[in-house]
Amino acid sequence: MPNYECDLVIVGSGPAGLAAALCALKSNLSVILVEPRVFPRYRHGESLHPGVEPVLQHLGAGSLLSNGEFIRYLGIWSGSSTDLTYHKLGNDDEGDWRGYQIMGAEFDTELQKLVLQRGAKLIADRAHSVVRKGECVAGIRTVGGLQIRAKFTLDAAGGRHWLANQLNIEVEPFSPPLVSTSEYGSLSSEGEQVAQLPRFEFDENGWTWTAEVERKMYCVTRLNWHTNLNKKPEKTYSKTLNSTTKVRASNVTWRCAQRLAGAGFFILGDAAMVLDPASSQGVIRALTSGVTAVELIKVLLFEPEQEASLYQTYTDKMQWQFHDSRRSLIKHYRQSPSCPYWLSAQ
Ligand SMILES: Cc1cc2nc3c(=O)[nH]c(=O)nc-3n(C[C@H](O)[C@H](O)[C@H](O)COP(=O)(O)OP(=O)(O)OC[C@H]3O[C@@H](n4cnc5c(N)ncnc54)[C@H](O)[C@@H]3O)c2cc1C
């Protein structure tokens, strides 16, 4: 079996894994990324909070946003279809905050190019199982038969919770099963309210999010409180979207792994925690989890005696962020025209 050795093996090349890689490369740590899919791979169109700017600048990737021609937005229309109110993102001394509409696939591709230019090795394979040294995670084995030994293994492989499953760490649900569906296309002129975008429209069964993610390319995402995880996703919920893509369904059940770090491993991004897309913070949470984990790893490399407390620090910090975002989302839903049944009962 061929062997590799490195400081960090990162499973998954989404925003969490790529942020971790950039942070590690800044300190000359050796990084192997394991990602089975060829980029650009599918990822939904996303609205990015302007808070991503300083994180990307810290990683030396600020130009990704400043050089890109993204659609910017100052706020969001929200409410029932007959009573929409505009909510600005906020402002500071430098003026109004403006979010970014991005196609996730392109964003990740550009970030991955940067990571490879800066010296990471990319292995096109899928993580299979964990290599252990006593109680410690010491790397991974891939489906293709490689063994990659590493000082630290970072799971950034998304919401299937690869490492938590490997290590029997429980992933606790905080909502009933929730599925969101997304479609892309143009808007028909009849009844469209292009001026009121991005828009969150609540109805008695859930919400619909409409945004222009690229010029004249619209994304409609729907969350129905009652959708069954095992049911085939329904096609077109939007009267105004001329859909050009198939319906993509995602498991967006609110959930969080009970332990996010331990001997030799860290769990990042959606692999650690998921909230539904209304929280609009998945990407920034993914980026900051990657940076936080690697900053702690840098301390650990010089002060290994701090191991236990630093693993706990990471778990506490990330879980605090999760619950803070969850509380904001609950508040948002409770103030909306249609509070989900499982929150109104509490
Ligand atoms: C419909 C929808 C809309 C959303 N909209 C927004 C939004 O507007 N704003 C926002 O901030 N967030 C949004 N999110 C959330 C956001 O997309 C995620 O939080 C973010 O992509 C998480 O990044 P990640 O790097 O943790 O995981 P991912 O982006 O899922 O990346 C994981 C990577 O791991 C790879 N992988 C999987 N298994 C393996 C394996 N075994 N071995 C190796 N590699 C593997 C995958 O191929 C993938 O490339 C949305 C989510 C959904 C579902």
Automatic annotation (TrEMBL):
Instruction: Say if the entry is tagged with keyword Isomerase.
Output: no
**Which SUPFAM superfamilies does the record match to this protein?**
FAD/NAD(P)-binding domain
Which molecular-function annotation in GO is an example for this chain? monooxygenase activity
Record's keyword terms, sorted: Monooxygenase, Oxidoreductase
For this protein, the parts annotated as crossing the membrane are none
Q: Which InterPro entries does this entry report, sorted A to Z? A: FAD/NAD-bd_sf, Flavin-dep_Halogenase_NPB, Flavin_halogenase
Q: Which PANTHER family match?
A: FAD-BINDING DOMAIN-CONTAINING PROTEIN (PTHR43747:SF5), FAD-BINDING PROTEIN (PTHR43747)
What is the name listed in the Swiss-Prot or TrEMBL entry for this protein?
Answer: Dehydrogenases (Flavoprotein)
Protein's organism: Pseudoalteromonas luteoviolacea (strain 2ta16)
